[in-house]
Structures are given as C-alpha cells and as structure tokens.
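Please describe the entry underneath.
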Amino acid sequence: MGLKKKKEIQVDAFVLDHQQLERLRSFADAEGQNLASLLLRGLQLPDGIQQIHCIKQIVPLLEKMDTSCLGDPIIKSCLDILAAMFLSLDVKNPLKKVLASSLNSLPELTVAEATHSFVDCLREELKTTDLSQYRKIMDNLASCMENISIGKSSVYILFKEALHFLQKSLLETEEENRKFSGNRIAQTRLMHDLLMGVKVSMMLIQKIQENIQENIWKKLDSPIWQSMCGLLNSFTCFLVNVDLLQTVQTTAGLAVVLFTKTMFEPAEKLPCLISDLLLGSLKSSDIPEWFLDNCGSLCLAEISDSVLLFLCHGALAMLEWKNGSMGQNGEKLLLDIAMTLLILSTRLKESVMAASLSRILSVWTNSALDVLQSSSDNLKFGLNGNSDMMGKMLDYVYAHWEHPLDAVRHQTKLIFKNLLQIHHATVKGSVVKLDSFFLGLTESLLSLEWHVKGKYSSLGCLVECVGVENILAMDRTIPAQILDAMSDQSFAPYASDLLETMFMNHKRHLTSVLEGDNWIDNWHETWVSPLLLILCDGNPEQATYVTDYYLPKLLKCSPECLNYMIKILQTSAESNVGSCSTRGSLGALMACLRTARAHGHLQFTDMMHGSLVSVGCIKQGLVHQHDQVRIDALGLLCESHRSTEIISIEEMQLIEFFIKYNLNSQSPAVRQQICSLLKKLFCRIYESSQTVHKMQQMKSKQGPLKQSIMWDPLTTLQQYKDFMSSLCGILFEALFPGSSHPTRFIALTLLGIIAGIFPISEGQSQELFQIAQEFGPTRVQTLLHCFASTFEEVKILAFELLMKLHPALSYLQDSEKLQPLFQVAMQLSTSIKPYDCVTASYLLNFLIHRKDLLKVCFKNNPLLGTFQPDEDMFAHPDISADPVEENTLAVIKHLLETVEEEIFQAEKSLLQAAASFPMYGRVHCITGALHQLPLNNLTRILEWKEIVAKLILMSYKLSAVVSPVVQSSSPEGLIPMDTDSDTSERLQLILCEIQPCDTNNYFSEVKLLKEHCRIDCVKESAEHICPENRGKEQQTCDVTAQMVLICCWRSMKEISLLLGKLCQLLPLQNLSGCSDALITVEQVQDIGEYFKYHLLKSRHRGAFELAYAGFVKLTEVLSRCNNESLNKLPQWWLYNVLEEIKSSDPSSKLCATRRSAGIPFYIQALLASEPKRGKTDLLNMTMKELISLASPSGVLPSTVPQVHALNILRALFKDTRLGENIIPYVADGMRAAVLGFTSSVWAVRNSSTLLFSTLITRIFGVKRGKDENSKKNRMTGREFFTRFPNLYPFLLSQLEVTAKTMDSKTGELKLHPSLFLLLLILGKLYPSPMDGTYSALSMAPFVPFILRCGHSPVYRSREMAGRALVPFIMMSQVPQTVSSLLTGLPDCTDPCVRQNAIHGTLLQVFHLLQSYLESKHKANSDFLQGLRDIITCIEAKLWLAERQNPCLVTRATYLDVLVLLNNYHGKSRIKESISWRWPGLFQHGPASSELKMDPSPEK
C-alpha cells in the first residue's frame, strides 16, 4: 500500500511558421470571433494542453456555417493549416490525437475541402528526398489510414505516389543501413525505419488497394504494378537478410505473402504455390515470371530455417482460413505448414526463435479451428486426437511445457488447449466426455508426477473439457495430492490455479445437479477439509503457501466456507494451540481470519462483536512460538481491504503489545514481513486520519446542532497521535547502546517508514501526527551513534532516516556542533578497521547536507593550500540555494589532498601506510560523497573538471603503489615468483620491510618496524603528514603480511569503484561538442585501459572482482554512448583479448592459474554490455571462438588457451544476465567439458570439471534440496534430447567408447575418464508416461551400453548405471527387461561368478522396479502378469540371497529387491492376485542396512 502522486502530463505545443502566422492574421477579424481568430489565438499559446482546448472549439464553430460559406478563403486557409499541423505533429503527441478526433467530426460540407488540403500537403511530403524525413512521412501515412477518414481518402487519391515513395524510401534506407555496418545505434534506428516502411506498405495494400480497380493496376506495365514488384523484391531481401532485426524479417515474411496473395492469379492456386515453396518442390514452369524475378532467392536457393518459419507465419496470418474459402488446397497447405513447423522445432534452438516458433504454432491451432468449421471429413480425420499429426503436436507440448522461457511455456499451454478444442471439433455430435482420446489423455496426465509443472496447466485445460467430476471419479484424493505439491513455492502458483479451476468447475456442476444448498457439504468435504488439515498440522512452508495462494481463491469462490472453517477451528483452538514447528488450530484460525479480512470478507468490528475471536486469542497469536502464527496475527490487525478503515483502540493496543515482544526477531524473513505489515498499518493511519480530519472540518462548519454525538473525529485523531508518539518512543528506546542488530534493523526501518509516510511539511494541522515533534537532540544523537554499527544496513537505515528528517535538524546547522563530527569522520576514514571507513563515509554524507560545513572544512584544515573557499560564501550564506554541491566539492578537495599526501608516504613505505594510514578509507569516502552530488544542476563546472582529472590521476598513482601485491603470483603470502623487473623490485622492497625473508613467521606473527626505518619515515614525513595522523608516527607499528595485503586489495577495490562511479554518473552522452562535459573521451579510454590491465593481470580475487564491478559500470555507459569511438571500445577490447588468448604466446602475462583469475570477469563485462534485444553478434562470435578453443585439438602447441576457454565458458554459462541467449551453446559446451575430461593435462581436466558442474546446473536447475536423486532437478529423456538434439549422437558415441572398457574378462581395472560424467547426465533423466512413438530420437540405442556400464569394477559407477538405465526403458517394457536381466544372472553351479556384474545387474533391476512400482499404473491384467513373471525370475535366482553367495554386497542388494517387492505387496490391493513363496528367506541373509557398501572384488 503506497501513496502515489498523480503524474503530470506534458504536451508539446505546435508552433506556426511565419508564413502561416501572417496568413491567419490577414483573415482574423477585429472582434476575434471568426475561425481564423480562434485558430490564431490558440496556436500562439505556449502550452500544448491549452492548444488542445482550443482545437476542440473549432468543430462547433464550423458546424454553425451554412452552404454559403463554401469556397470561403478563410475556411480553406484554416483547413490547410490544420492539415499541415496534423502532418507536422509527432505521432505520440496527444495534440495529434485530439486533432484527428476533431477532423473526423468535421461537417459534411467541409470534408471535400479538408480532403483537398490533406492531398496537397501529403503530395508535397511524398516528393521529399531527405532521408531523415522518411520516417516522419511513414508515420503520417500510417496516421492518415488509421485515425481519420479524410486521411484515408487522401491516401486513396495518392495511392500511386505513396507506393512509389515507399519503394524509394525502403531502398535508400537499406542502403544507408549497409553503410553504417558496425554502428549498432545508427543501424538500430535505420532498421526500425525499415520496419515501419514494411508495416505501412502492408497497411496500404490492406486498407486502400481493395478500392482500386484491378483492370487499372494489374497490368505489367502500369506504375502501380511496377512499384508493387519493387516492394515485393525489397521484402524478399529483408526476409533473407540475417543482419536485420528479427522483427523486420518477421514482418517482411508477412508482407511477402500479402503482396503475393494480392498479385497472384488464379487465387485458388495460391495455396499450392505457398505449399510448394515451403516444401521446396517448386517447378519453374508453375511460377509466374514476376514472382520468379522478385522472389528468386526463395525459389531457386535452399530456404533457411528462419525464413521458412517467417513464411509459415505469413501464410497463417495473411491468408483467409475461415469458411473454407481455399478449399482442399487450403486444407493441404494447413497440414504442410504444421509438418514444417514441427520439423523446425527440432532445429531452431535459439531462445528468440523458439519463442517465435511456439507463438506461430499457437496461431496454427487457431487457424485449424477456423478451417474445421467448414472442412472436409479428410481433414477432420487428419486432425483427430488419435491421428499422427495430433500425436506429434502433443509431443511438442510435452517437450516444451517446462521450457525455461515463460513465453514458450505460455504458448505451449495455449497450444494444448486449442488441440483439445480441435479434437472436440472433429468429433462434434458424439458424447465427448466419454471419448477415448480424452480418457486416455486424462489417465496419462494423472500418472505423471506432481513435480512436472506442465501437468497443472494441462489438467486445468482438460477439466474444462471433460468436467472435474470425471477426473475425481478416477481418484478422489487428487485435491489432497495437489495441496501436498504446494510444499514447494515454485509449484504453489501452478497448483493453486489448477485447484481454482477444479473447485469452480465442481461448484458449477454440483449446483446444476443438486437443488438449494445441498451441494455445499459435498463441496466443503472435497476442497475445504484437506485445507484445514494442512493449516493445522502441515509443514510450515506448505501451510504458508496454501494460505497465500489457495485460501484467497477459495474464499472468493465461496465466502460461505469461512464460517465453516471458523466453526471447526474454534472448537479446537484452545486445546490445539500449536508449537514451534506446527501452527495448530490457533494458527490456522489466525491465517483464515487474516486472509478473510485482507480480501474484504470480514471486518475487525464484526470479529470483535460477533465473538469470532477474542482479544486474548489474538494476543496469544501475537506471541506464539511459531513465527508464521505471529505474522498472521499481526496481518489480521494491519491488513484491510479498505485503505481508509479507521483503526480501533483495541487494534492500537494489540500493535503496541506485539512491538514490545517482537523487535528482536532473529529471522530476516520475519523482520521483513513485520516491517511490511506495519507499513500497511501506517498508510492506513495516514489516509484514514486525512479522511477523519476532513470530516472534522465539515463537522465544525455544520455547527453544534448537527454534530453527531455518537462519534467524535477529534478523539480519533488524538488517539492516532498518542499511538504514533508512543510507538516512536518504543522504537527509540530499542536503539540503546549495545542493542542487537535485529532490534536496530526493525526499529530503524519502522522509523524510516513513519518518516516517509508522515513527511515534514509546513502548515500542517496540529490535529494530525507530526514526525518532527518526536525528534529532539537526544534522539538525533542516538541515530548518529547507529553509524558506528558494524552492520552496513544499519548505517544505511540511520542515514536515510536522518535525510528524511533534514528540515527538522536545525540545531545541527551550527559549525561548533559540526566540528567534532567532522573530526571523527576524518579520523575514522584512515582507520585500519575496514568498517570504520564505511562509518566515516556515511557521517560525511550526512554532514554534506549541513550549510556550515564549509567553515568547518576551512577551520579544520589550515595546511591545505589548494582549498580556499570563496569569501563571499561566509558573508552571504544564501548565495546558493542548495549547499550540497559546495560541500561535496569541499569535502572531496579535502579528502583528495590528504590521500595524495598519504600516497606520497606509501611510495616510501607501504608497510607504514598499511599500519598507520591505509588509503582505501579516503577513497571510499570520496566515492560516497560523489553519490550526493546533484549532477543535473552543477554550477562549478570548471572546478569539477579539475577535480575529476585529479581523482583519475590519484587513482592511477595509488594503483601503481599497491598493484604489485595483488598482481604477484601468490598475493596471499607475498611470495614473489614474477620475472617482471618492476614488479619484482616493488615486491622485494615490501619483503625487505617484513623481515626475516627466509622464514614464514610473518604469516602468523606480528612484526615490528625497525627503529631506524620508523625514525626515517617520521623525519621525512613530518612536514606533510595529515593532521588526523599526527601522533601515530611516534607509535610502534604492528603489521603482518595480511595487513599489507588487505590494504592493497581494498585500495584496488575502492579505486575500481571510484573510476566506475565517475564513468557512470558523469554526463558522457554530452561529450560531443559540449563544453559542460566533466570527463573527456581520452579519460574514458584511459580508464578502460586501466580496467583491462588490472583485470587481466590481478591474481587476488577480491581485487579483480571489484575491478569487474567498476568495469561493468564503464561498459554500461559505453553501450549507451552516442560517441561512435567510445561505443565501439568494448568490441575492440573483446577482439584483442580473444586474440591474446588464442596466440598462446609464452610471454603473455595472462594468469593461467586461479581459474584464469580476472579474464572471465573481463569478458563477462564486455558481453553483458551488449544490447540483448538485437542481434547478439559479440556473444555469438565469442562463444564460437571459445568453444573452438575449448575443444581438444592437436593444432595449438599449448593447452593454456584451452584452459582459458574452459574457465571463461564456465563464467559465461553462470552469468544470468546473458539469459537464454547462451542456451544454444550448451550442447557444444557440454561436448567440450566431456572431451576435456579425457585430457592428460591436469589443468584441462580441472577446468573441464568446473565447466561440467556449471552446465549441469544450467540445464537441470539449481539444486534446492539435499536429495541427489530428486526429480525436481531432472527432466525426461524426451525433453532433454528435444532441447539439445546435438547431444544425442555425441553421448551415444561416447557411451559406446566407454562401454568397451567394461566387463573385462581378465579382471583388469580399466576406467574411462568420461564414464562418471556420462552416467551423471543420463542419471538426471527420468521416464515419462507421456513418451510416445513420434520422437525421431529413439532411446533404445543407449540401453546395451548402459547395461555394460553396470559391470564396472567401481561401485559408484555401477550405482549410477542402475539409475541411468531407468529413463531409457518404456514403462510397458519394464517387466520384460527386468525378467531378461534376472535370467542373465548366473546359477549357483556356474564355474565363473563375477560379482561386479551381478551387483550391477541387481542395481539395474532394483531401480527399474522402483520406478515401475512408483508409477501410477492401474493394477490391470497386464500389470499383474508382468509382476508374476518378475517374481518367477527372482525365485529362480534365490541362491544370491543365501549363504551360497559369499559376497555380502550382492546378497544385500538382492534383499533390497525383495524388500521393495514385499513393501509394495503390503501397500497394494493385489495380495490375492499374487502368491508369495519365499518362506524363511529373510532368515538366511543379512539386512542391507547392516552392510557397508564397498566395491566388491572380481570373483
């Protein structure tokens, strides 16, 4: 609940040129009453809003004129000006829309004259040759055809000229676009112009051409025909041009089909032409010459996949599918388009193309529904639910209903819904609900696991077709099963949507078959009772998600169920109060009441007076052991459907009661919820107090006789003031010294919320609560003390609160009170404790907003020669309305002066600097001060330019001092291994200070500076040392190598953030020809080179990670910069670093260890800056280069480029900013990782392992639980190989190679490096009952190789092979496969018994049986017979569970199989159908839990 201000609308005014102005003046009358006077007066107004009011008065004035006024030059001149005005205004200007509405309302007498005016103006525009005006003219043509009838008539008259203009403008724009190759900003603008030209051309044909007589323009030598041929040629070029934006190509595909449809004769053969074009079976003899001349690239060459997709879209969108107008040819074309789209779905894997394909398939289903309204029986048979075409369409749905793109998932749902309607249309007239297709589909969907998100939306669609009663007839526990799935938040929205569809359908069904309220008990039992069980005794997460997602929808459908829930819960609330782990009935009652009140089903007064809940019960909930019960009880008090509902005194008392006991909550989530709910309460108090105050004012005006004696508004306002004042007092008391972080966080957050909702404003009524009255000097000091907290979020909250109270802190304007604060800030900025400099930064940022800070700076720094504030500033303190810029400038000058002196000292002794005055604190304060700078209205431009230049030079100097440490080969221990002379000298100097060099005791022991070194430092720096550092030079400096390292990497961090902030905040876009720009192109280029150098050379992670943060800010600025040289910098940097990686130069200083250090970060920053909406050329080029380098090859003399490539790929695949654009490269990345694992070089294998782990996460999602085998992070084999078809042949070939090393007859241990990776991937797949026979990727070839991998000598490999086999065996084939595996086991009399092979086979049997028995198959005759066959085969190998088998591992695994079957037998209802003949079996074998599963030796 927030307070929003109404946004003011800005309208640009139209300005008359001199000629039009004089023309209107000549016709204006002296009284100013005629049309010319009105128009002249209105168009001279400076405000667009006022001009709108003037335009609205024109039409009523014209309506008063009669026929005698026709031909009046005044009217003609005014209409000419209105036409020119309409064509001059921007297309988004509201004034243009008002003008269009007025022109549409012109009297009939003036329409012809207005049309003539439009034609004259438009004809002149169409003659232009200025390329920069083309887009404006296209917009005008579109506006004329869309908005006004006069404009449409004008375009009809100028049809030939408009076509010629569009042909010319598209050709010239395309040529200009080609000239700007490489300039993304210019090309994007020109491509949008092309897009607009194509759209206007289509609009022209669709809206105007139909009125042109065909015998006039359908002549091959007519100008209109020639223009249309030229446009068709251009559209074809756009369609096949992959360098254009995809939107241009898509629209060109629509235009090609539209123009072909318009020009082609005879019309009945058009579907055949398009069908042959899609299938690649066009014959030259069947193609018109004009089509071959203009669309030759589509007829003579092989059409690319993307072009085929766009042509399919064009055919579906531009052809008339309704009413069967295209006959049998149209039906054939419809099926051909479907086949083409399904083939393309297996080849187009880029995220943008996949989204487009799903959308076009959805369009196809809509077109199919249109055709089926009047189609032949053949088409109905071909689109029946049991047909091959529908089977393939359903396969597409099953493979894409969990696609990572939301757009694809949404379209997949629409496709499935339309497929059901298509089948319904094909069997119309029969009993649809008993249709075998629907019943089979329902059974298949119900047999799926509930972790499949696509199941929910599909079941929802199916419910609407077959009715929920038929689904519940199959399984009455479905509502409870869906509620169980809501224990995971990622499934809760899907589950709640499905439940809503089901219970609403069920309610409609019950009310239709039962009379009165007889239905309600049945409905409550089905949908409400399972909910109450979860709220009372379910796990906390599940109860929370059910309350948030399901309960509001249930109450909306049937508000009467609230009384049913309360009645049940009230009876057990006192006895079942819950615990720290369960809510109990009390918690469930709080949740129901909270939800009901928040959604307007219940009022607080009704609860109190209706005895629904007592105050004591609410208090019990407010201090409950369970966090969520406390939150629900608080939400019951804070949330209301009406934002102006008055808060009762009982609610206020309960809120105070809650605050006293819950300020110290240890859970961050609970703290956030407390603050969020109380914010809603404060908003209610503010809005209701405004309402009550208005009522009080109205009441006082009515006089004492009419005043109500029932309720006094003043009493309510006083209660509000007392409550808010008391609440502020409680919160400030909680900020005592030593209070915990949770207490401070909640108190400061709530105070900040109060200060934001109740702002300080002048003239506020004394009857309303005023936050300023609650903040005295003591409380302000309390807030300032919060800056000393070690938690930065506490500092942030305290600072933001002080800024909101800025006008109320008048006593801090005195310089005498600011002086100690400033001194403390400067002392903290040079502390060796990192969090002290953060405190200093927030304190300085607070002081920057004080007016007298300039005096403090001058008094505190008499030695600063460069800092001389203007004298007139002290004499005239109000010379600048906003002192922030002056104070920021003064503080930065002061900090810059001190840090420069400290850098000078650090150049002599870095050890002294690290121990006494680490420089990073000063730089951090400078960066913080820049955040306070008002960039939009700077006045001291020259001084800021000088400061920026000094800051950049200072950063370079400081970097030169500290960078040798973070760039050394071992920065953590300062062990120099570098060969570079400069770096070695600096490191040697550092090591000389930290003696002795030949031992490692300085890693853990404190080292004292030598006395002579300390004295020399004192003598040399006495004249220049900073005032706040005086006295420190006489102290002994305790320092370790870690202190030096911390000083260095934090300094590098702050430098990077400072440079990034300079680039991000300063107005780069005005660099071209602007004297106000604070930073030059050369400075930006130098900063970029600095980041490049340190990202590629630094070895300390802290240093290059923060350099990356600064570099990202720079690249984001460069990507938006209009300066072409700056805009292309990321591209050139990327090319250069890739060339350096590929060169494998021994002299290269790129770090090949530490996971390539900063190199991946550098490339990430460059690629992340590339615009995502257009063609991601840099990403595509980089990925191709890196995958080429990462793949094993004997071409490169070194493996270093391969290691770099693998590390960079890992970083890119982890980068969420690249989104789905990187998904097409996942298969190639997986191939490189698996092959890299076979390398003989350890570095390659290590990097390949890291890349493989990242790709597993990228493909299957982030692991949320501890269960390694959870199906939440898995997918079906169909979905996996549909999304990554290139992995199918690769994994199969690799598995074949791996399997050849298994099952050695000699018993020799042969391990293939890729075995673990391959089995891990395959083990992540799982079988699905939706897997059909329409997929071209059969799973069968994998089976024999996985079976052989089960014979591995390594236990873990055998276990993984057992899991990996499951998804490759169809459920119907499991009994046969298990029987075959068991038959292959040796008998007790066999001479050679290989225990590894037995163990692997038994594991495969176990996992197949486990999957088979867990699947939701009906216990039909086939299922029972298969189970009997399995049991028979198990009995035949019973010796494996007895003492005859000496191997305990295989004996235990055999017992696991028996236990699995026995448990299923005990739970199922088929005990009579299967006899169990294993007496005494468990007396002979050990329990599996007693065995330690180690690899068994070959026997």
User: Anything to note?
Assistant: Strands lie at 1007-1008, 1038-1039, 1275-1276, 1325-1326. The mean pLDDT is 81. The longest strand covers residues 1007-1008. The chain is about 65% helix and 0% strand.
